[in-house]
Design a protein that fits this description.
About 40% of the residues lie in helices and about 10% in strands. The protein is of the alpha/beta class and about 190 residues long. A 5-stranded parallel β-sheet has the order 2-1-3-4-5, sandwiched between helices. Bound molecules: flavin mononucleotide. The site of flavin mononucleotide has 13 residues, from helix 1.
């Protein structure tokens, strides 16, 4: 199997973020052929096209981080039935300046967790719509809506429920296969 590097974006800045825990768990469960590293988004100013002629360091670092990975994984909460503003801001930064969209032909996948029963499903649909516009080949299936229960994922990123652990491991394996298919169809 080929190796592909995944950059993951966590759509929460909260210190106790359950989505950050999920991201950590995914790094542990991913196949060895899918090494993962975080693409940080917390230091970005609010985007304006006034920056387009002279991107600040944080904006350039974001675009460089995405350019240096084979695929991106969004691990995000749902806020008010959409995605958090901090994540939308990062996507806007990465998608610009016009003609330099970092997501073009960059495979992606979406996952998230919430204490609610529908586990970020509505927010993920919004994100899918955004990524479609950004021309990212997006893994449609399998979908992953994780209802977070206290203790489901430890601070070390261990998933304590076997069925969830198996599901997440399979999700990452499916993502590897999806990236390989995109890579075969659209070589870099
Ligand atoms: C501004 C705000 C809006 C929220 N909206 C939703 C929502 O639409 N659906 C949902 O399931 N949970 C919602 N929640 C609850 C979050 O799922 C919960 O705070 C979760 O811990 C956020 O993920 P995080 O810990 O990774 O930041 C909301 C929380 C906040 C702070």
């Amino acid at each position: 199997m080929s190796t592909f590097t995944v950059g993951y974006l966590v759509g929460s800045l909260a210190r106790a973020s359950i989505n950050r825990k999920l991201a950590l768990a995914l790094t542990r469960l991913a196949p060895v052929e899918l090494p993962m590293r975080e693409v940080p988004i917390g230091d970005l100013p609010l985007y304006s096209y006034d920056y387009d002629k002279n991107y600040p360091l944080a904006g350039r670092a974001l675009k460089e981080a995405i350019a240096n990975v084979d695929a991106v994984l969004f691990v995000t909460p749902e806020y008010n039935r959409s995605i958090p503003g901090v994540l939308k801001n990062a996507i806007d930064w990465a998608s610009r300046p016009y003609g330099h969209n970092s997501f073009t032909r960059k495979p992606s996948a979406v996952i998230g967790t919430s204490p609610g029963k529908i586990g970020t499903a509505v927010g993920q649909q919004h994100l899918r719509s955004i990524l479609s516009f950004c021309n990212s080949p997006l893994m449609n299936a399998i979908e992953a809506y994780i209802q977070f229960e206290p203790g489901l994922i430890t601070d070390e990123g261990e998933v304590t429920v076997k069925s969830t652990r198996d599901f997440l491991r399979n999700f990452m394996s499916e993502f590897h296969d999806f990236i390989a298919r995109v890579d075969a169809a659209v070589p870099k």
